[in-house]
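Annotated sample (chain length 140).
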Amino acid sequence: MKQELVKNWMNSNVITISPDTALPDAHRLMTENRIRRLPVLDNGKLVGIVTLGDVREAEPSNATSLSIWELNYLLSRLPIAEIMTEAPQTVGQDATVGEAAHIMMTHKVSGLPVVDNAGIIVGIITESDIFRMVAQEWQS
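Output written by the structure step:
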């Protein structure tokens, strides 16, 4: 298998949110776009990442004594900044897919924001992208 670069396998259509995005809005974006993570940008700078798991963990359990209206009100006021992972691991667009996979395994994450030389987010690479590359290489 040749040295494949991240920029050739990443998704460059990245949906991002701001730290003040409400939790239900982030959840809706994930559901509508069938994605499991959203990079969080503040004035164009990557400041965090939130995953579907983070969102689900922040939602109350079924054992809560609050009414549905109280829950919806509280959730609508919870900003993503409260639950996001700050300073997420990233990978450069010119790194190899193997390097990206190593970062993912080392830090136990399933996706990485991809940044250019200036640190600007230009894409995202996930386990699915890596599996797609391996499957395509294997069939060749």
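Annotation: The mean pLDDT is 88.
Annotation: Strands lie at 37-42, 45-51, 85-86, 91-92, 111-115, 121-126.
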